[in-house]
Amino acid sequence: MLNVPSQSFPAPRSQQRVASGGRSKVPLKQGRSLMDWIRLTKSGKDLTGLKGRLIEVTEEELKKHNKKDDCWICIRGFVYNVSPYMEYHPGGEDELMRAAGSDGTELFDQNLTLLLRLECGGAVSSRCNLFLPGSSDSPASAIQVHRWVNYESMLKECLVGRMAIKPAVLKDYREEENKVLNGMLPKSQVTDTLAKEGPSYPSYDWFQTNSLVTIAIYTKQKDINLDSIIVDHQDDSFRAETIIKDFLYLIHIGLSHEVQEDFSVRVVESVGKIEIVLKKKENTSWDFLGHPLENHNSLIPRKDAEDTYMKNSYIRKNINQRRETFIFTFSPNVVGLYYRKCQLISKENVTHDTRLFCLMLPPSTHLQVPIGQHVYLKLPITGTEIVKPYTPVSGSLLSEFKEPVLPNNKYIYFLIKIYHTGLFTPELDRLQIGDFVSVSSPEGNFKISKFQELEDLFLLAAGTGFTPMVKILNYALTDIPSLRKVKLMFFNKTEDDIIWRSQLEKLAFKDKRLDVEFVLSAPVSEWNGKQGHISPALLSEFLKRNLDKSKVLVCICGPVPFTEQGVRLLQDLNFSKNEIHSFTA
Ligand code: FAD
Ligand code: NAP
User: Whose CA is nearest to atom 16 of ligand 2?
Assistant: First the structure.
């Protein structure tokens, strides 16, 4: 799967920037673009030199392949021959050679980009050039990571095989699980240290009646709700991901008997218990729940929590004591985000280039994307799976336009701008009603607790950076009793680019707590409103607290440079870190 970074989107020299700033593209070396690489990988050429064989590679063998024309790199236990890819790597050959003949996993994790910077598309942006040796920028600023960047799909034709030594963390669980799946709870071996420092150790159990099987998950957390649990079951495979603070607790079972497609999920918030009630296909008694599937009964750091996780050495210290009952997975990439196929139900024009897509979840999925979080959409493009992040919105800002809520919140809406020269969105736009697109589990670090006792909410959005603000607006205006004022400043190029302008105006008319200000950078016709870019003058006038000591939150989202500049300006205006939430990937 190919994950496409968007963090710096639009690239500093992208066509969008060109349109406004008059800057030009820097072309990649002829015939060495992303699409050229994809074409080469599809050409049937033997890129490993092994004629399709996969081998077990010892450390000694790996070390031997350390030259440009014979360069093997190990990433998370898999060995790739990256020599054919050297010329296509926007970061340059030297970057790749740093890991030649060795384990490059840590380099990847330290953000040393060995990966394709797909945002460069068919051209290298100035940002991409930052990765090249000799750049005047410091390595720290140059190395921007995209944690979701995935190389498996990109380099799959270069796969030589696996390292002979298997990672120690992913073993030894089946025997214990066989017991667990017969209905016994895992015997907790949590040490005192871990219990104090780490997340409370979740567990699960199951019980049955004649017609139902209930899987109960004990999170031991009180802030659990229906957003915290994602359930998918297909055929006999049952998967439940529970979000517990910065971790995912995964139950993954091959059920012993067939169940019906639909099921229900209940949360007992006061004790942090989740119950998933499955309907048996046949009213027989089950002797056991099933058999464990990959990473069953494991606690996995969420992608966005990776940094925090890596710092938490207590997990490392206690891993051995825990292994018998539980698996901790060190890298989120080992598990990756789970995708399910969703059907396109409707597509509606919102502006000249932005559409409202409505996708329907499969009947056998329970998924509610929390406010402020995003998912990844995945589509095959010229035979390679491409993914990009998108932030679900509500179907409308106004309750009278909202479709009746269907059982289990089966619909997910997205406001997506189509870039005709983009990689992903034109393909998305070509989908027909009834077609399928894969949707990942949610990701993101926005916490709803930020709204507690909130009095003043300021939203700064540019272009599609408006998307996280949609659910925030809906939630804040309906569920925060302490809220006195919400102010949205919405930056766009022209009037035609403003998403849901009339809905915003109607909402502000209906709810006097809401003020909306549109700012245009390139108005084409007469415009009486504010004009320009985000600036100290605009912000200092706009961000007036209601009361001197009111509890304030400022949310900001848009192109990365816009967001970064906005955060600097907010800090200059004495907003504290806790009062600012910036949406980045
Ligand atoms: P790209 O291929 O990335 O290209 C976009 C444009 O830039 C094209 O015009 C292309 O020609 C040009 N370009 C790209 N690279 C270069 C280059 N090197 N030089 C010159 N020009 C270049 N978007 C939404 O619309 N809705 C959302 O809800 C949304 N949510 C997001 C949430 C997160 C957390 C993040 C990080 C991004 C989100 N985005 C959202 C943006 C989205 O992920 C994609 O970046 C966007 O859809 C563009 O994808 P694309 O592949 O079509 O375009
Ligand atoms: P756009 O139309 O290109 O720009 C919207 C407005 O922002 C325009 O007025 C534009 O001015 C201004 N702007 C752009 N770059 C700026 C900068 N560096 N400084 C000040 N103002 C700037 O925006 P878009 O195409 O919709 O892109 C939206 C962006 O939001 C994408 O990059 C997307 O990845 C990001 N996004 C992020 C998330 C998230 O959660 N992280 C969610 C959704 C979207 P000009 O006329 O000068 O260009």
Answer: 562
